[in-house]
Structure formats: C-alpha cells, structure tokens
Amino acid sequence: MRGTLSGAVHAGSPRAAARVRRAPAIFPDRRPLCGTSGHHRGMEAQHVAVLREILASTPWVERTEEFARTLRRTRDPGGLLLVGTPDDEPWHLAAHLDDESRYAGLPQLAPSLVRWNPPPDAPSHLRIGLERLEQARRGETLFVVAEEDAAPVPLLERVDDARRTGATVLALDQGGGELAALANDAISLTPDTAPLTFEGLQHLVSTAAGQPDARRKAGLRDRLHRFLDVVSGPRILD
Fold first, then answer.
1. How many Cα atoms within 13 Å fall on the side-chain side of residue 137?
2. 54: exposed, middle or buried (C-beta count within 10 Å: 0-12, 13-18, 19+)?
C-alpha cells in the first residue's frame, strides 16, 4: 500500500534547521558519536505523544503504524538498510530506530546506515557504502528517506536493483514520484497541506516501529513504563 496523505493544518518545514538537528547522533550499543541526554530524549518522546494525540482523528497515525509493521518484518539483525540522499543522510532517524530496537527488544530494527561517501577512517558501522545495496536480498529491507522533491536518479537505480534481488523497499518522501512507484510501500508527504513536518513523519514511524501489534493497545501503566525507559536515556555498555 502506498499513497500521499494530506491534512488541513500545515506546521511548516524548515529544512535547514531540520538538517542541523539530524547531525550525527548516537548508536549506543556500538560507539556514541555525540551524546543525547535522557532529558532531551524525554522531551522528544513528549512531543511525539502530543503529535499522535493531535493527529488521532486523521489517517496519519494508523498509516504510520501500518508502515512500521512492514519495517518489523525485516528478518535478521543488520538487514534493515537505511539510506538517504547524497546531501541529506538520515542520521536522526537512524538514532531513533537504534533506540527503539533496544527498548523493544527487536534487534532487526537496528539500522545499517548506508552512506554515499563514507570516510575511510570512520568506525566500521559508519563506513557502510552503497556497495551494500548490491548485496540486498530477500528478507532484508531497504528503507529510503528522501526529503527532496525528486529522488536523484542514482538512488532510484539502486532502489530498483535492490527490489529486483528480493529486498523489500520502503520509502518516505515528499514527491510521491518515481521513488514511491518503485517502493513496496511508501508514504509521500505533501508539504503544503500536510499537518506535520517531514521530520515529524519520521518520528511517528520510528516510534510505531518499536510497538509490536500485541503492545499497541497497552494501558497507561505500560505506556508510562515505556516513557520512563526513553527518559532514562541509553544504557551504558561496558
């Protein structure tokens, strides 16, 4: 299923500010690049909860939950390949998916961030280049995030190749063009009419990914426990 969702209220989409917020975050179980405090994570959790409440009467919450269910079908750890565009790598989303993987006990949600030009001296988990997409296979998921109006042709070519080799292709974009057509499932945001920003959409998806179906109807106690887990910040590994 794919489609473009829209709404009556527009929250704006300051790209420059969003890209600053997306600067290298953390992968706690590997090596933090720059720390994010428990307080900051708690504030983000509050913002997502408020956003879900605001959008409760719209299709957005249910649609992102449906999309997240496909993410959780990734078969093995390391099989979720997350890639952006050459000018905008989805660091922030990668960090949130990594968090959700740990909090929910779903190791297959920890993303492999695929980079266009990884520095040769970067840590191994941040040195995954586009050649990894050539190895994509059935049971793996290629998650493409493209805030640009039209995904670049080299990205579209790699997406097409990955789908042909059996990988499930998921996409978030703002164009609803060729990328959405290539994907097995895509959510295309229309900036002029959508009731949330592109960054807000990513938050909804990552939060929903950490909530398996059996827990989606959890009561207040369970939701409070999950919120406290987020507020406490990442575990420090020896």
1. 4
2. middle
Q: What is the CATH number of the domain that holds 91?
A: 3.40.50.10490
Domain total in the chain: 1
- Sequence-distant (6+) residues with CB within 8 A of 102 are 28, 29, 110, 234, 235
59-93 pLDDT per residue, tens:
999 999 999 999 999 999 999 999 999 999 999 99
Work out the mean pLDDT of the chain and round it to a whole number. Answer: 80
- Which pTM was predicted? 0.75
**What confidence tens digit (pLDDT) does each residue in 11-27 have?**
333 333 333 233 333 34
Domain span at 107: 2-226
Asked, for residue 233, whether it belongs to a domain, the answer is no
Measure Cα distances from 168 to 36, 71, 178 in Å.
31, 9, 16
Please state, in angstroms and rounded to a whole number, the distance separating the CA atoms of residues 187 and 61. 12
198 in Cβ contact with 13 (< 8 Å): yes
